[in-house]
Amino acid sequence: MTTTAGRRAMTTATVADTVRATTMIALPTILCGAVKRRHWVMRIAQRYQWDRRSITAMRQLAERYGPSPVRLRIPGRTVALVLNADDVQRLLVESPEPFTPASREKRAALSTFQPHGVLISHGEERRRRRQFTESVLDTGMPVHRLAAPIVVRAKEEYASLAVDVARGAVLDWPTFERAWWRLVRRIVLGDSAREDETLITLLESLRRSGNWAYLGRRRTLTRQRFAERLRSHLERAEPDSLAELIASTTTPTRTCPSHQVPHWLFAFDAAAMAAFRALGLLATHPDRFQVARARLDREGLGTNEHPYLAASVLESLRLWPTTPMILRDTTASTLWGGVSVPSGASFVVFTPYFHRDERSLPHADGFEPEAWLTAEADEPGVVPFSAGPAACPGRELVLFVASAVLAELLRRNDYRLDSDGPLRPGALIPATLDPFTMRFALASDG
Prior knowledge:
Elements: H1 15-32, H2 39-48, H3 50-65, E1 70-72, E2 79-81, H4 85-93, E3 99-100, H5 104-110, H6 123-137, H7 147-166, E4 171-172, H8 173-189, H9 197-210, H10 220-236, H11 242-247, H12 257-283, H13 286-299, H14 307-319, E5 325-330, E6 334-336, E7 339-341, E8 346-350, H15 351-355, H16 370-373, H17 395-410, E9 415-417, E10 439-442
Parallel strand pairs: 2-8
Antiparallel strand pairs: 1-2, 3-5, 4-10, 5-8, 6-7, 9-10
């Protein structure tokens, strides 16, 4: 809806509150790495619980300016901070028009490794790329058509890790991550890509450049090397891989299939953090661990998704969103509750605040996977995979893979979180949790 003259202007925060929002909410996310997490910064963020401070700052701003979005005093830009869960839903449901996910910051960041990716596309090109992505990823289907080979591969990659832990080894992030990427490469590109660690190393280099958005160095040679390596895997179209499905999927002009795959790999990186944190939640909540184990015993070794483990991953994503900031830019002048919003305005959603809102979530700082099984977690501001037409198309596949991995680990062992981090049995669940310093050992009663 186009604005007309005489409409009232958006409420604007004071300079002091703008500085507070910038330094307490936006800056920590930027420092931690929006595209590729910086491990050393995450350690600092966990030590000082940056997200708790950010949530407190958001709550204060909401009490002062809410419920409508508040404009921050950013020179030369219209930037509005969303303060109400219903407004979160409006932004997501009305994407990609008039609220596009292809914000200027996102385009600058993601173009380093996927310049023609669906997330930063517009119009007909976006529609075609989204349709292609949903077709390959089986968006909306409870079980992906590659479910059976995924389960077999998860067993092959993680069974030995579980055995090693039973023999006294420690399951740390590097060990978990190596097995995760072997599994992901097999799922996406085929078994021949299992050992291609260089592919992921190149992608991570490009993502680190993406952390700097406009200021990042254009790594043209690195991107060429990554694209060539990725293309060689895709051209093989190995059986039981997403590459095979890509080869058999009709792709209209300018769909650019090879430019969609990097984002799938990017998303699987976030999924690894969510799965590892979910293991930490289960290990520090023995009652939930036993429920998960009992359900596994009933479900057996089939190819179905494990609902309780998938719910545990969703709780991990609720408690520690891997996308702490959702950005939307307006593509046209718009009315927002009688307030004029110009074309090109930017809306910012700080998801940790809405995911830990005690007013709508009694278990805001607790671990309640059952809430996802009973729809109690179905709140407008709780969006672990975003929502609306631009929601993550890989939601079902990611949850399936993560739950298959957790099932393989939990089937054999009881785990103890063997680290000095803030996630402890009986303690308040921390607002910031660094997965890169977590370590697991066999529980003494396992």
